[in-house]
Amino acid sequence: MAAMRAMVLDRPKTPLVMRERPVPVPRAGEIMIEVKACGVCRTDLHVVDGELEHPKLPIVPGHEIVGRIAAIGEGVSGFAAGERIGVPWLGATCGVCRYCRSGQENLCDAPVFTGYTRDGGYATHAVADARFCFPLGEAGEDAAITPWMCAGLIGWRSYRMAGEGTNLGLYGFGAAAHILSQVATWQGRRVFAFTRNGDTAAQDFARSFGAVWAGNSDEGPPEELDAAIIFAPVGALVPAALKAVRKGGRVVCGGIHMSDIPSFPYALLWEERHVMSVANLTRQDAHEFLMIAPKAGVHCEITRYPLERANEALSDLRGGRLQGAAVLIP
Predict the structure, then answer these.
(1) pTM of the predicted model, to two decimals?
(2) What average pLDDT does the chain have?
(3) Taking the domain 3-138+300-329, which CATH number applies?
């Protein structure tokens, strides 16, 4: 093929524009992918809305990529043409900084991020570093597993950091939470879901995915929480979650961007409660989650959009009009 189609962001806070470009040729160590589906993540929204600074511009967003290998660059082994693979947010690391050398590649000093500092999957084709691509096998429909590549991976990392308590609160019940709720329920934990005030549809949605209780984000849960994970990018939820967790409990902020956290009384933090953030992911997170998701029977609620309607998908996500995840189909 001589040309590919891509939805391109020229500058933040402007609509994406459909463009034709030459099909990329993979360099040494890279794979070129024919994109079959790409999830629409809230991080994409942060890039488009200018909340994440210094993106590569122009940029093709999208980092929940499922596709087939169309070409393989020099020096790549372990992959075959036509194989189905996934491409996540973490696109490459330097491998030599103190974090990479200590098993914390998610904190790399010189990372590459798919759909932010290198072109992503809102396109018919994409190029990725082979070291950061994951074989997906043939089980499951392409569109239905795209949320695994970010909502699932970041959700899993957040879940592990939250600890092993029984009662888990999830603030914001979107793509990540509806995946994580299934894993937690499968493991015998009890999920308490918090949604925008009055969003009874989201609360019903949460209960359908295993939540034992669902209510407004400004409500206290009927039982103390052992831990809480905040997926909604709302800083005011941090003190609310601290109030809901038990002594020694953890509050994990699972997003890459959040509005400012308001001041709160020290009493909410006292008694050895913890507040922590999750940054990016590691390849080990991906290997773990991709093993556990099929065992837990994880399935995703998705809304499909053709590639040219990417702006509509982003608008629906921004406006809270989605249950589950949006997915673009080239």
Answers:
(1) 0.93
(2) 96
(3) 3.90.180.10
